[in-house]
Amino acid sequence: MTGKGDTVTLTIGTSTAEIYLFGATLTSWKTDGVERIFVSETAHLDGSKAIRGGIPLVFPHFGTVATSKLPQHGFARNSSWECVKKTESTAEFHLKPDGVPTKLRELWPHDFHLIYTVTLAANTLKTSLTINNPSQEAWDFTTLLHTYFAVKDISRVKVAGLKGYAFLDKVNPPEGDAKPEESREHVNVAGEVDRVYEAVSNNKITILETGSGDVEVHKSHFPDVVVWNPWIEKAKAMADFGDEDYRKMICVEVGSVTDFISLAPGKTWEGSQTLVVARL
């Protein structure tokens, strides 16, 4: 990792969390000294680019959008957030247009107010995102919590809770508009994976065989779930991702990304995830 930016640390007993003000990116969550979150050793932590790992916040666009010149995943993860409240267990971060780099703000010239709350408990981490439109016009957005989970051996990891849901396979896109449904009880990783599971009504996804216990992902108001691992070739192609890092991580990301959300003037949208160490 290179550089060192301003951080906020939460501590409850033997659990800790660390969040950078740059991007409001959570880069560490430990329970009983065990790190649950993956950050690449080659990640930039000096604000020069989005942090490779942790829980980057995606807003106002997931991926790239044909009608927008914003970079991939928007600007929230590349902006300077303000920590406005902090207790032992909770920190609240705010982002308004003046915290967004000028060049990016000009590409999406809408008024907005984001509130990101991180709450730590003994074996639990809750991250909540509130999106407010204080302007006089409606605007559209997609959003996602891009969580990188630390694992000891990706070949053993399984993700439960996605069977029966349709998905968009970005690695092997289907011909036509038909989308396959997940047939497996446990989704494993044996090559590059980039899937968007859509309209997942099951609000508990479990990551099994991490090497340090199972982790449950409880989601609220996030209908979609992305599973991502770059595998060998893409890992080598990313400058801020180690060649062998793909073995030590899996992204299970909750979001609302399939369809744009239209937020009317004065209205608010909220979504959250709660991560629970379920079995040691």
Q: Could you outline the blueprint of secondary structure elements for this entry?
A:
Elements: E1 7-12, E2 15-20, E3 26-31, E4 34-35, E5 57-58, E6 82-86, E7 90-95, H1 102-107, E8 113-120, E9 124-132, E10 139-145, E11 148-150, E12 158-160, E13 167-169, E14 186-188, E15 193-197, E16 204-208, E17 214-220, E18 224-229, H2 231-237, E19 249-263, E20 268-279
Antiparallel strand pairs: 1-2, 2-3, 3-4, 5-10, 6-7, 7-8, 8-9, 9-20, 10-19, 11-19, 12-14, 12-16, 13-15, 15-18, 16-17, 17-20, 18-19
Your description of this structure?
The chain is mostly beta strands. It has one domain: Beta-galactosidase, Chain A, domain 5 (Distorted Sandwich). 5% of the residues lie in helices and 42% in strands. It has two helices and 20 strands. The strands form three sheets. A nine-stranded antiparallel β-sheet has the order 6-7-8-9-20-17-16-12-14, with no helix packed on it. β16 and β17 form a beta hairpin. The longest helix is centred in the last third of the chain and has 7 residues. The two termini are 28 Å apart.
